[in-house]
């Protein structure tokens, strides 16, 4: 079987730091290839993942562009997808396209009508109601959690092939490092992820907190300064930049509560694995929760608000804690040492290992090709 996996043009695969979808693609592709699938990857030209062929429309990652207004960036996704379609037009040996490009992927591929397509919905399906409410029937879809699909428009939910949970290679690695004192939030700094709540709780309780993640595609304080110090910068008023400035930075005392920017590679794994707990004070219905799954795999108990996919991933009292309010969250944070890291690791190995995800996708590929 030969599959064209479309990761989109935004970040290299695997991503050097932040990158939920790119991490999932980087986890899936080696497993597919081990099982005899030939993979053509469509991604940013900087991608280093071992594949059979790499096709690209851009030599550089386009993630920083993604934050700009729609009328300044819509050409990027379309240029990438035009490259994918040109590839599909030029050959007849692709059995299936596994697409991960939001809206533009299925929109363009349904109009093209080439090989069968499985599109993975990584997003909050309340977005794009016009598109998701009239999703092209020729495109097969899957979600990344049951709760995400439960919120999808009726027709999309009915047409979907179900949910495939996200996986992490950390589930197979059994990384063990000395535990530190800090709690962590790993993720984009933005209102949806709720870092200010974690900061408020930790400041009140006197617990060290490390926030890791980019702000609006900016990976360091210096990069962010370029945006905040220039009132004419196109991202100056971006909601994520304002969120960091207005709601998070007031807690950053450089000691108890720290923002370390985006971290990647072994440094990220070490920082995350040494945390006492991973906090998820989410302010939205998190669709897939890669960072939650990673926390389990590292034996770092996740503690979060009971929303989105969190109740599906976290078994309250066994592999983490779930709270309904900020006050309750603070209470559970004080009890994280009651949770057994081994139980978290076991759960990740059983449910979120790469092979588990890959086997599920191979079943779906078969189903899509047969229909
Ligand atoms: N991440 C990272 N470095 C950071 C912040 C995040 O490597 O500084 C990774 C994180 O470990 C996870 C991904 O980026 O693999 C974020 O995925 P998630 O699904 O949690 O968030 P979203 O895709 O909603 O931004």
Automatic annotation (TrEMBL):
A biological process term (GO) from this entry: carbohydrate derivative biosynthetic process
Cross-referenced SUPFAM superfamilies: UDP-Glycosyltransferase/glycogen phosphorylase
Source domain of life: Bacteria
Record's keyword annotation contains Zinc-finger: no
Key words of the record: Glycosyltransferase, Transferase
Ranges of residues in domain Glycosyl transferase family: 208-340
Stored Pfam families: Glyco_transf_4, Glycos_transf_1
InterPro entries (UniProt xref): Glyco_trans_1, Glyco_trans_4-like_N, Glycosyltransferase_grp1
Residue ranges of every copy of the Glycosyltransferase subfamily 4-like N-terminal domain listed in the record: 18-126
GO MF assignments: glycosyltransferase activity
Name of the protein this chain belongs to: Glycosyltransferase family 4 protein
Organism name: Nonomuraea zeae
């Amino acid at each position: 079987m030969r599959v064209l996996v479309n990761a989109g043009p935004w970040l290299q695969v695997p991503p050097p730091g932040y990158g939920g979808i790119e991490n999932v693609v980087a986890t899936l592709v080696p497993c597919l290839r081990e099982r005899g699938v030939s993979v053509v990857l469509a991604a940013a030209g900087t991608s280093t993942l071992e594949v059979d062929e790499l096709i690209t429309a851009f030599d550089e990652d386009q993630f920083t562009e993604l934050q700009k207004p729609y009328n300044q960036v819509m050409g990027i996704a379309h240029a990438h997808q035009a490259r994918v379609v040109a590839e599909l037009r030029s050959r007849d040996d692709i059995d299936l396209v596994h697409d991960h490009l939001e809206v533009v992927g299925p929109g363009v591929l349904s109009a093209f009508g080439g090989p069968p397509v499985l599109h993975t919905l990584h997003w909050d399906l309340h977005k794009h109601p016009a598109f998701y409410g009239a999703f092209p029937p020729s495109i097969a879809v899957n979600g990344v959690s049951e709760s995400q699909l439960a919120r999808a428009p009726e027709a999309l939910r009915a047409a979907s092939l179900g949910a495939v949970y996200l996986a992490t290679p950390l589930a197979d690695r059994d990384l063990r490092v000395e535990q530190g004192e800090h709690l962590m939030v790993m993720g984009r700094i933005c209102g949806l992820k709720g870092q200010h709540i974690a900061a408020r709780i930790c400041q009140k309780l006197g617990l060290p907190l490390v926030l890791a993640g980019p702000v609006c595609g900016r990976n360091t304080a210096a990069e962010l300064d370029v945006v905040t110090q220039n009132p004419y910068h196109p991202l100056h008023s971006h909601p994520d930049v304002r969120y960091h400035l207005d709601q998070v930075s007031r807690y950053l005392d450089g000691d108890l509560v720290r923002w370390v920017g985006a971290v990647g590679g072994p440094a990220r794994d070490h920082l995350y694995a040494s945390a006492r707990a991973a906090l998820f004070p989410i302010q939205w219905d998190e669709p897939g929760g890669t960072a939650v799954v990673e926390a389990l795999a590292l034996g770092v108990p996740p503690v979060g608000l009971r929303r989105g996919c969190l109740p599906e991933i976290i078994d309250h009292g066994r592999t983490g804690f779930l709270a309904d309010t900020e006050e309750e969250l603070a209470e559970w944070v004080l009890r994280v040492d009651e949770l057994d890291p081994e139980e978290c690791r076991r759960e990740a190995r059983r449910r979120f290992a790469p092979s588990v995800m890959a086997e599920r996708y191979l079943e779906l590929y078969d189903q899509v090709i047969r229909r």
